[in-house]
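Researcher: Next entry in the queue.
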Amino acid sequence: MSVTREKNIKNKPLIISDGCCIQYGDSSALDDVTFSISEGKKVAVVGPNGGGKSTLFNAIAGLLPLAHGSLKIKGMNPQEAKGLVAYVPQKDLINWKFSLSVKDVVEMGLTKKDSFNLFSRKKINETIKNSLDDVGLLHKIDESVNNLSGGQLQRVLIARALAQNADILLLDEAFSAVDVGAQEDIMKLINDINLNGKTILIATHDINNLEEKFDEVLCLNRHCCAFGDPSEVLTEEVIKEMYGSHNEMFKNHIKESHGINNDN
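Model: Structure for this entry, 264 residues:
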């Protein structure tokens, strides 16, 4: 593949949000969020608790409807593009009360099971093993997830996403509740996955050294404070806006207005 062709592929828009708005009842969770992410990018989604990071991921995954605006993945609505997106939610949102093996958790990612005949079962097992091998945990395939460290559990969840063979990976708080060493291991794994052509979005609270780790950063505080190269957009003004009060910026927001001038 020529360098020019590879560059064009990398710059091809994959996820386009145009004035995306999401509401929970009368409350605005996201308002007028606009950005465009190209194929093969590694994007940090940063912002405060309640800033809309998980809400955006749920929308991209086709789990939440839009109140206004549009959100396209390869030109399709999120509901039509579900097969292209693998979502790793926050660990504390998953019910771990049941005794599950590592293999069981990864198999949950295989939503397209045509049947349980010998051929398909063999293919499923092969996919599980390959996904665990990719994250360095094949040797833990029969281990109970309750016996894993935080970093190992995160890698199992990433393996579950890889088993779906999706083009886009959404990782919600992938670095939370793990030590620094585990964070470095997970970041190395994410880099390897990205080099394989996956587009990766990671929700994180950590805004340190983003320019060294990510191609782009999306700053959210219920609206898009900034989007672009981390070294350019993470200004003092943007950080203040991102972690400032919601009240002032939404004081004129009413249901169905979505930041639109109603005189037009």
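Model: DSSP finds ten helices and nine strands in the chain.
Researcher: Noted, moving on.
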